[in-house]
Structures are given as structure tokens and as C-alpha cells.
Amino acid sequence: MMEKLLRKVLYTGIGIVTSTTEKLQKAVDELVSKGKISEDEGKKVVEDVVKNTETKKEEYESRFRKLIDAALAKLNMPQGDTYEKLEKRIKSLEVKLGLLSKELDAKVAKENTTETPAKKTSTRKKVDAVLTDTPTEN
Question: What are phi and psi of 115, to 5 degrees?
């Protein structure tokens, strides 16, 4: 999940750089056509900007990744496949809880057929306490 967001942000950055480079190229072409700079000077300007951008790209990606990692660490959020593993574990536990709840309901129903009304209320309170994780009074 976070990897997808990171990729989107990086691709957005690449798109911005590409757009900026295209605009720079058009501006340089216009300056060349008006005779304000030579064609060689224009090429050099564009090449320098592109080269500088490419060399800085890895530095920016590294900084960005460190910022994201620091933010995730502060939020105590799982990263990478740890998130997916936790998601699968939660789903598995939900299924187990559902099965245990059905089993417990069946047991209570069976006990309720043979118990007195006072005992039925006591059993129901215990079941509710287990399901809500609250202490019971005996």
C-alpha cells in the first residue's frame, strides 16, 4: 500500500521534471530563433539542466524515502509486506473468532435447555463478558 503511494509520488515528480524540461526546451528554442543565444548555447543549457536533474534524482529519491520511513516509524505503521501479513492474520483471527462464537452460542443454547432461569442469566453474562473482554462477577 505504501509502496504504491511512494511510486505515485515518484512518478509525479518525474512527470514534473519532464514537463519542466520540455518547457525549458521550448524557451531555449524561442531564444535561439530570436537570435538571443546561439544554437550551441541553447543545447548546452538544456543538456546541463537534464544532466543536473538526472544526477540529483537519486539524491531526491533517497531523501524522500527517508522522510517517508521516518514518518511511518513515528506513526508506528507497518511497512512493506509486514502490512499484508498483518492484514491476513487479522482476517484469519476474525474467522476463528466467528467459529468460536458459533461454538459458544451452541454450547449456551444446549446448557439453557437444562438450566434454571437464574443459571441461564449467569451463563449469558459470562458469554457476553468473554466476547467483550470485560471481567465478570461470580
Answer: -105, 165
Cell of residue 116, nine digits: 434454571
Cα angle 40, 14, 46; round to 5: 5
Q: CB-based burial of residue 28 (10 Å sphere; 0-12 exposed, 13-18 middle, 19+ buried)?
A: buried
Instruction: Indicate if 17 and 55 belong to the same structural domain.
Output: yes
Q: Pick from 2, 4, 9, 1: which is nearest to 63 by CA?
A: 9
- Same domain membership, residue 71 and residue 20: yes
Q: What is the radius of gyration, based on Cα positions, of the chain?
A: 32
Instruction: Specify the pTM.
Output: 0.39
Task: Tell me the pLDDT tens digit for each residue of 79-91.
Answer: 778 888 999 999 9
Structurally, the chain folds into a number of domains equal to 2
Q: pLDDT higher for 128 or 15?
A: 15
